[in-house]
Structure formats: structure tokens, C-alpha cells
Amino acid sequence: MKFGAEIPFVSHLGFELLLFEGGHSRIDYLPLPEHLNSFAVTHGGACMTLLDVAMATAARSVQQDMGVVTIEMKTSFMRPARGLLSGKGRLMHRTATMAFTEATIFDQESRACAHATGTFKYVKRLPTGPRSANPFNVISTD
């Protein structure tokens, strides 16, 4: 399953989109050694990226022709994130231009590791190309 846009950082991390419909998303992620922190657990930045993308994808799942950009995000870390991780996102409410979302990361034992809430703005996707040809490219976090 594809994210709907090429997102180089998401590809680099190896996220796998498994659910993308009806205001819900699921993304699996197996962190590599270079994605770990000095305690040998998944780095908080990688976890926050998984949460961000899970929320953005849940927001986009109800209107897949639109992109979204992150307006704000609050994250709580509850336990170390080890091994195969699953980020599950949910669209809680939307308006014509905004999406209010939440996401949780679960480990292989289905224990919650981190949780986030986020607000996203829906934006039209513009054609991509050289920056000089299109100086107002919209970059989406989805």
C-alpha cells in the first residue's frame, strides 16, 4: 500500500502502510540499529515521526486527493519502544480545512509505548518539479 506521495524520509525509515481508510491508519515500522538511541531503544524522533505520519495518514484517508501539513503535535512517551512497532492513527474530528487526530505506537506485545494528538491543515497538492518552476510547492507530512 502506498502513502499517496513519495516521502523520502518515510521511505528511509522503512514505514509500511497497512491501513488507510475511513479515518484510520496503521503503519508498521521495524527500527534499524541506526534508528536507536544510546539506550538501544527506538529514538524519540523516530517515534514522533511514526506518530506524525500515522495521524497525517488517518486525516488524509477521508480525502485522499488532499495533502496535510502538521500544525501542532503533543507527544507522551510511556515506555521504551523496542522491536517491531505499529502506529495506529485516528481522525477524531475534521472541518473543511483542519483535522484533529490522535495516534498510539504499540510494541509487539500490544503495549502502548507513545501517544500523540495532532492538528493538521488540509492543503491542495501542487505539481512537483524544480523549485524555480514552481516556487510555492506544498510539502506534506503525510
Extract low-pLDDT stretches. Answer: none
Average pLDDT: 91
Residue share in helices? 10-25%
DSSP summary, beta strand count: 6
Bin the strand percentage: 35-45%
Element order, helices and strands? HEEHEEEE
- Quote the distance from N terminus to C terminus: 14 Å
Task: Give the spatial strand order of the biggest sheet.
Answer: 1-2-4-5-6-3
**Sheet bearing the most strands, described?**
6 strands, antiparallel
Please state the CA-atom Rg, rounded to the nearest Å: 15 Å
Derived structural class: alpha+beta
Helix tally equals 2
Overall spatial form = globular
Structure description:
With 142 residues, the protein is α+β, with helices and mostly antiparallel strands. 16% of the residues lie in helices and 39% in strands. The protein has helices spanning 8-13, 44-60; strands at residues 16-21, 24-29, 66-77, 85-94, 98-106, 112-124. Strands 1-2-4-5-6-3 form a six-stranded antiparallel beta sheet, covered by helices on one side. The longest helix has 17 residues, at 44-60. The mean pLDDT is 91.
